[in-house]
Amino acid sequence: MNLEASSNNIKQWTVITMLIISFLGFLDATYLTVEHFMGAVPNCSIIKGCDIVATSQYATIGTIPIALLGSLYYLSIFLLSIVYLDTKRESFLFLASRIPLAGFFVSLYLIYLQIFVLKAICMYCMISAISSTLLFIMGIYIVKSNGHKFLKIK
Amino acid sequence: MEEGQIIPNDTEQNILPQNQKKQLTKRERKLLKKQKLDNIALEQKKQSQKKSFLWLFVVILIGGSILGIGWLSQSKSNQTPLPLIDKISSNDHIKGSPDAKNILVEYSDFQCPACRQYYLLLKRVSEELGNKVQIVYRNFPLTSIHRNASLAARAAEAAGVQGKFWEMHDQIFENQSSWSESTNPRSLFNSYAENIGLNLEQFKQDIESSQVKDKVNKDYNSGIQAGVPGTPTFFLNGEKINTPRSYDEFRSILE
Q1: A26-51 pLDDT, tens per residue?
Q2: DSSP secondary structure string, B160-188?
Q3: Dist. CA B198–CA B207, nearest whole Å
Q4: Residue numbers in A near B54 (CB within 8 A)
Q5: Which residues on adjacent β-strands are paired with residue B108?
Q6: End-to-end CA distance of chain A
Q7: What is the predicted ipTM?
Q8: Secondary structure (3-state) at B135
Q9: How far apart are the CA of A44 and the nearest CA of chain B, in angstroms?
Q10: Contact assignment for B144 to A31 by CB distance below 8 Å
């Protein structure tokens, strides 16, 4: 019983950490999205260094900015974590911990584009890459420590 | 429980009097069950209230964040206008009529892609509103992100020594993509100097001269003093303006 309780506690903390990181990621990506739609004035600045990255052909898929997709990605993890904490239904945690596994590889590709193709680094994109990596680590941790349980879910 | 006793089921009692005791407990059980159900309903109500509070909180948090970010981004572009500290002098490069009522000072970086876009825009502005506006170019090379920006600024200033600043300015912006990441930008700048008919030997000397280096530094420092956040930054008649988004917007504020 005690063991179960403590493992439950650890899980609770992991989910709360995921909640915080995904929220920070959401704020970061939303800022870039808002800038994309509102701050249409292009400029160069030392603080941002985002001029090349945010105005490059890789910043959008068609007319949809990648920042918006990132924003929705973090929001979905954030909401799934909350639903899990609320309902304690493992299937939500299952989803919340698996999505970052895909998100991490997208982040890797975007970092590759920044460093090797565009040769410019955007701070906000790097913050997103860090939060996505942290979520990936948390995701792996949750999957590893609960893997056997997830298998039982119908 | 008493309530149950006050309203007895007469028919049941008449038919089965021996079962009265049992019936009462049955009623009690019913009541208990009802109470339990009530409790559960109450608990559920509390739970659902808690849930709606949680989701209300989430909605407010997410909505608030989006609005907050939007507000921040908006207020950032609507800062109170900054005054230009360094007044225009004979050392400045000025294009347009000296009688023009509007003086536009641009802090710009030759290697900045946005500055190139505004170069094209300003070119049209000065062609069409040449007598209505004076355009002043000041160097603001962002050397930490643009490795050849400083040398480009010196190349334009060195051409300025021979009186061809604006010609070199145009050449540098037109060819931005060729020299920006070049490992040998000097040879490219030399070729532009030849294109516009400069004395190449003097140009090579001037680009290294302390006079030219000082001019670039002076421009940069005046920009720092005026709080230039990035490039391009425009000052109209001594006050910082929000960077216009289009040619029409530019035209409307200059007319």
Answers
A1: 999 998 888 777 655 667 776 555 66
A2: HHTT-HHHHHHHHHHTHHHHTT-S-HHHH
A3: 12
A4: 82, 86
A5: B139
A6: 24
A7: 0.74
A8: strand
A9: 5
A10: no
Q: Does B69 sit within 8 Å of A34, measured CB to CB?
A: yes
Q: Which of B54, B145, B245 sits opposite A86 (nearest CB)?
A: B54
Which segments in chain B show pLDDT lower than 50?
1-16
What pLDDT, on the 0 to 100 scale, is given for residue B190? 95
Optimal mutation site among A34, A36, A122, interface B, most CBs of chain B within 10 A: A34
Cβ within 8 Å, pair A120-B65: no
Interface test with A, best of B47, B61, B66 (most A CBs within 10 A): B66
- What structural domains does chain A harbor? 2-146 (1.20.1440.130)
At B172-226, the pLDDT tens digits run 999 998 998 889 999 999 999 999 999 999 999 999 999 999 999 999 999 988 8
Work out how many CB contacts closer than 8 A connect A with B.
Answer: 73
Tokens of B82: 């900054």
pLDDT score, position B12? 46
> Would you state the torsion angle of the CA atoms of residues B125, B126, B129, B133, taken in this order, to the nearest 10 degrees?
110
> Which residue shows structure tokens 């230039």?
B228
- Which pLDDT value is given to residue B244? 84
CA distance A19 to chain B (A): 12
Average predicted confidence (pLDDT) for chain A: 80
Return d(Cα B32, Cα A73) in angstroms, integer: 49
Report which of B122, B120, B208, B123 is spatially closest to residue B161, judged by C-alpha positions. B208
